[in-house]
Structures are given as structure tokens and as C-alpha cells.
């Protein structure tokens, strides 16, 4: 029997046809597992960098038989396929695919940290995450996503994208 876990991913884009980049990434993600749910798409100012174009972000849940590192490799291949190139931290990008959670697994390696270490401080992540999984308990912090969003000090507005 195949071992399947639920991965929770954050998709983001702030260059070019942002909506198309998210849709293309979502289609390719379907090749590495089964997309179970997807949040609405949200727009927010670039986090950590003033003057960058605004981001579109979306959270999806994915049932996958891949290990966390295999999933990371697959997501990085998707990013490269869609035109992402190495850039400075938080720089504008065609596509950004992050693993937020992998079931209740905690991973700490030189290449990968799960849960994603910035979840609790980023409203652009918590808003779409709370739409899908408000009662999911963060495995390292021990609080629900709903609670983390209520306590989040990030003040960047996160607006549902009307497109």
C-alpha cells in the first residue's frame, strides 16, 4: 500500500502574468500528487521588500506519496520549468512554491524546514491557510492556524483577488 501524506503548499507570483503562473504551477503540481483543495487567490504587497510588484498567493493541499525532500525537489523543478531563476532573498519572482506543512511531520535539514519557519509571522500565508485549514494545529507551535492568524502582528493588507 502506498504511503500518502497531506502536504500544504503556498504558491506565489509577482512577475508577469501572475494568475497564469499560479495556474501553470497548479497544473504541474497535479503531476506529483492529488490536489485536494485550493484557497481563493489573494493579493498582497511584497513582504520584506518595498517597491516590488504585489504578489498573488494561494494555498493548496496535496495528497502525495513523495517524501518531504522528494516533494521539495519536484517543486524546485516546477519552479525552474516555469522560468524561476536564482535571486536574492524575497526578490520578485515568476513563481515561488513553498511547503508549509507535511502532515504533522517536523523536518529540519540544511535544505528544508517543515513546518515553514515563517508561517506565524506572515499574514499573506495565514489568510489563505485559515480559509482551508483553520483548525489545523501547527506541529511545532501547538496553536491552530486560526489562532496564529488572530495573533499575527503582520499588518500588510491581504485582499481576495478579484482578477
What does this protein look like?
By secondary structure, the chain is α+β, with helices and mostly antiparallel strands. It has a single domain (5-160), classed as Alpha-Beta Plaits (2-Layer Sandwich). Helix 3 packs antiparallel against helix 4. Strands 1, 2, 3, 4, 5 and 8 form a 6-stranded antiparallel sheet that branches. The protein has a two-stranded antiparallel sheet with strand order 6-7. A hairpin with a 4-residue loop joins strand 6 (107-108) and strand 7 (113-114). The radius of gyration is 15 Å and the shape is globular. The chain has helices at residues 18-29, 68-81, 123-132, 145-151, and strands at 5-13, 34-38, 42-44, 55-64, 96-102, 107-108, 113-114, 158-160.
Key features of this structure:
163 residues, alpha+beta, six-stranded antiparallel β-sheet, two-stranded antiparallel sheet, 4 helices, 8 strands, 26% helix
Indicate the topology:
Elements: E1 5-13, H1 18-29, E2 34-38, E3 42-44, E4 55-64, H2 68-81, E5 96-102, E6 107-108, E7 113-114, H3 123-132, H4 145-151, E8 158-160
Antiparallel strand pairs: 1-4, 1-5, 2-4, 3-4, 3-8, 6-7
Helix pairs in contact: 3-4
Amino acid at each position: 500500500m502506498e504511503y500518502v501524506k497531506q502536504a500544504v503548499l503556498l504558491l506565489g507570483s509577482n512577475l508577469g502574468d501572475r494568475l497564469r503562473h499560479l495556474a501553470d504551477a497548479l497544473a504541474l503540481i497535479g503531476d506529483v500528487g492529488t490536489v485536494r483543495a485550493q484557497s481563493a487567490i489573494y493579493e498582497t504587497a511584497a513582504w520584506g521588500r518595498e517597491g516590488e510588484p504585489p504578489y498573488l498567493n494561494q494555498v493548496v493541499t496535496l495528497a502525495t506519496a513523495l517524501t518531504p525532500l522528494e516533494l521539495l525537489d519536484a517543486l524546485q523543478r516546477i519552479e525552474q520549468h516555469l522560468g524561476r531563476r536564482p535571486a536574492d532573498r524575497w526578490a520578485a519572482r515568476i513563481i515561488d512554491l513553498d511547503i508549509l506543512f507535511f502532515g504533522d511531520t517536523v523536518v529540519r535539514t540544511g535544505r528544508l524546514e517543515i513546518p515553514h519557519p515563517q508561517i506565524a509571522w506572515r499574514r499573506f500565508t495565514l489568510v489563505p491557510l485559515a480559509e482551508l485549514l483553520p483548525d489545523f494545529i501547527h506541529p511545532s507551535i501547538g496553536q491552530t492556524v486560526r489562532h496564529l492568524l488572530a495573533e499575527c502582528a503582520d499588518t500588510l493588507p491581504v485582499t481576495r483577488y478579484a482578477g
